[in-house]
Amino acid sequence: MSTPVKRTQWREELQHLRKDHGFSKKVLFNCCLVRRIITWVSPNSKDSVEDELELSAVRHRPEGLEQLESQTRFSRKELQILYRGFKNECPSGVVNEETFKEIYSQFFPQGDASTYAHFLFNAFDTDHNGSVSFEDFVMGLSILLRGTIQEKLNWAFNLYDINKDGYITKEEMLDIMKAIYDMMGKCTYPVLKEETPRQHVEIFFQKMDKNKDGVVTIDEFIDCCQNDENIMRSMHLFENVI
Hints:
The protein is mostly helical. It contains 14 helices and four strands.
């Protein structure tokens, strides 16, 4: 548990991060995993990532800081702060699926977040080894927080493509949609009817599946999302439950 002193020091560090590196409060707290991780940020801001890696007995050690800087849209300072929180939350250096589910259950106590957390975990776990490393985390986070619309839509397509065969079926889209509604629980107003997810999927799928072959390709998905204001608004709502 963080002490009041640590929380105060973390807030000061976070304020400097927002001011110096362009993170808005909304962006920083847009991601449930970020909210959980940055609340554990250590006050020892002068420590470098390399120093921390030498001092901590983690099973998984991240790639070099310079490499992560070149592969993401985060600065050295931002990566240091994110890693500090990641290490405190996940001393082993990786997040497993159960931890992922625990994090989401805490932020959505009014519903059942386990299924959505499962799908989201698989989207972050890019090498499909059953764990999310710090590299996996910041690579995905860089896209979600600072990526282009194209990059975000590619990431979203990967989330909806549950079996990773390069296509989205109506069943896959429905599984994701139902998982989101299950997670939101009774906090929506007006309360959504049980058939609402299926109705939304029918509308979205008809628009996306332009050649009516029963699947949505990445090109169909991106083209439809970029040219449909309603779907783009839904995508922004989707970002708020990442």
